[in-house]
Design brief:
The protein has 376 residues and is an alpha/beta fold. The chain folds into 2 domains: 5-72 and 100-168 and 279-350, FAD/NAD(P)-binding domain (3-Layer(bba) Sandwich); 171-277, D-Amino Acid Oxidase, Chain A, domain 2. It contains 13 helices and 17 strands. The strands form 4 sheets. It has a 7-stranded mixed beta sheet with strand order 5-4-13-14-15-12-16, sandwiched between helices. Strands 7-2-1-11-17 form a 5-stranded parallel beta sheet. The longest helix is centred in the C-terminal third of the chain and has 23 residues, at 328-350. The radius of gyration is 21 Å and the shape is globular. It starts with a strand and ends with a helix.
C-alpha cells in the first residue's frame, strides 16, 4: 500500500487492525493518548467469542498466544435470587465458545506482536481536520501534527475522528455501573467467594443488578448496575468510599448479606461507570480516506460484545485493505458495508438483555431463559 495507515487509539480494536496490517506487510502507525502500556488499569475479564473475537485473533495469527492466557473454569455462571438462592449453576465444561481472559493480557499479546515503535505513546489527539483530496491533519495536545491519507478512528466513545464523518454524539443510556474489587476472597471474604463461585455470578432485579466475576487468583470484580438518572449519582460523594458504598448498598436493602458484601466489603473505592451509547444503526456516508471502528463507530450499552466487535472490525478492515492495496476507497467501502449491519444486529439483539439495561425485562427468570436459549 502506497499510503501508510494512521490509527488513533491503541485499544483492542486499533491494535488488532495494526497487527493484521503488519501480517500483510502494510505500514501502520498507532497514536495513543496514554503515556505507556501500563499507564492505566485495562479493566477486568473479557469473554472472547468464537464467532467474532476469536476470528479476529485468527486473522492476526495469535491463537496460540490467546490460548495461553485463557483462564480455565471462568465460563461457569451462576444466577442467584436476591435472597441468595441459587437459581442456575452452569458449570464450565471446557467446550464453551466464550473463554475468559484478562483484558490487560489480551492487549499485551497484541502489543508484543507489533514491531517496536508502531505505537506512539503520549499522543493525545486534540482535533482532526480535512485538508481536501482525502488528506487529514491530526493535531495533538502538545501541538504536534501528522498528515495522512488513510485515517482510522479507533479512539472510543468520545472519538476525535468521528466528527469527520458524523455529527452523532453518545448519550446516557439511563444505567450506570459502580465497580469494586475484593481481594484474597477465599480467605478474607469466603461467603461472597462462595456465592460467586468459580466464574461469574448475576443477581438481577428490575432496574438493578449485582454482577461479579472471579478474575485471576481469588480476586472478585463487582459490577453493580443501577438504572438511575445521572443526577442521582451526582448526589453521591464518591470521594468518600465508605459512604458511597453504603449508599449504593441501600438500593439492595434486604438482599442476602453475601451479595451486599460485594459492595460494602470492597477493597477498592467504588468507581462510577456511566453507560453511553450512539444511536442504534449509526452510520455515515462514505468519506474518502477515513473510517471508524469499535466504540468510535457503534458505541452501545454493555452487552458482552463491545471488545469482540472492535477486534473483528479491526481484523476485517485490515483484510479489506490487504485485498485492495491500490484502491483504498474500495477497501473502506467493503469494510463499512459489512460493519454497519453487523454492529446494528448485535445492538438490536443484545442491547437490553444483560447488565440491567432493561429494568422491565431483566429479572432472574428472564435471564435464565436467555442463557438457556443461548446454550441451545
Amino acid at each position: 500500500m502506497h499510503t501508510p495507515v494512521t490509527i488513533i487509539g491503541a485499544g483492542l480494536g486499533g491494535l488488532t487492525l495494526a497487527r493484521v496490517l503488519h501480517v500483510h506487510k502494510i505500514p501502520v502507525t498507532v497514536y495513543e493518548a496514554e503515556s505507556s502500556p501500563s499507564a492505566r488499569t485495562q479493566g477486568g475479564m473479557l469473554d472472547i467469542h468464537d464467532y467474532n473475537g476469536q476470528l479476529a485473533l485468527k486473522a492476526a495469527g495469535l491463537m496460540d498466544e490467546f490460548h495461553a492466557i485463557v483462564l480455565e473454569g471462568r465460563q461457569s455462571m451462576r444466577v442467584l435470587d436476591r435472597d441468595g438462592t441459587v437459581l442456575l449453576d452452569k458449570a464450565d465444561d471446557g467446550v464453551g465458545g466464550r473463554p475468559e481472559v484478562q483484558r490487560s493480557e489480551l492487549r499485551k499479546i497484541l502489543l508484543d506482536s507489533l514491531p517496536a515503535g508502531t505505537v506512539r505513546w503520549g499522543h493525545k489527539v486534540s482535533s482532526t481536520r480535512a485538508l481536501g483530496e482525502g488528506r487529514y491533519e491530526v493535531t495533538f495536545a502538545d501541538g504536534g501534527t501528522v498528515v495522512t491519507s488513510l485515517l482510522v478512528g479507533a479512539d472510543g466513545a468520545w472519538s476525535r475522528v468521528r466528527p469527520l464523518l458524523s455529527t452523532a454524539t453518545p448519550e446516557y443510556t439511563g444505567t450506570s455501573f459502580v465497580e469494586t474489587y475484593l481481594f484474597d476472597t477465599d480467605t478474607r471474604h469466603p461467603a461472597a467467594a462462595k456465592a460467586v463461585g468459580g466464574g461469574s455470578m448475576i443477581a438481577p432485579a428490575p432496574g438493578k443488578e449485582i454482577f461479579a466475576h472471579r478474575e485471576s487468583g481469588d480476586t472478585l470484580h463487582t459490577y453493580v448496575a443501577l438504572s438511575k438518572p445521572q443526577d442521582w449519582f451526582a448526589a453521591i460523594d464518591f470521594t468518600d468510599a465508605a459512604a458511597a458504598a453504603a449508599r449504593i448498598a441501600q438500593e439492595f436493602d434486604g438482599w442476602a448479606p453475601e451479595l451486599t458484601a460485594l459492595i460494602t466489603d470492597g477493597d477498592t473505592a467504588p468507581v462510577l461507570r456511566p453507560h453511553y451509547a450512539l444511536p442504534t444503526g449509526h452510520r455515515w456516508d462514505r468519506v474518502p480516506g477515513v473510517t471508524l471502528l469499535g466504540d468510535a463507530a457503534h458505541l452501545a450499552a454493555p452487552n458482552g460484545e463491545g471488545a469482540n466487535l472492535a477486534m473483528l472490525d479491526g481484523a476485517e478492515l485490515g483484510k479489506a485493505l490487504a485485498a485492495h492495496p491500490d484502491d483504498i476507497e474500495a477497501a473502506l467501502t467493503e469494510y463499512e458495508q459489512a460493519m454497519f449491519p453487523r454492529s446494528t444486529e448485535v445492538a438490536t439483539f443484545e442491547g437490553a438483555e444483560i447488565h440491567g439495561t432493561d429494568p422491565d425485562a431483566n429479572t432472574a427468570h428472564a435471564l435464565i431463559d436467555m442463557i438457556t436459549e443461548t446454550d441451545q
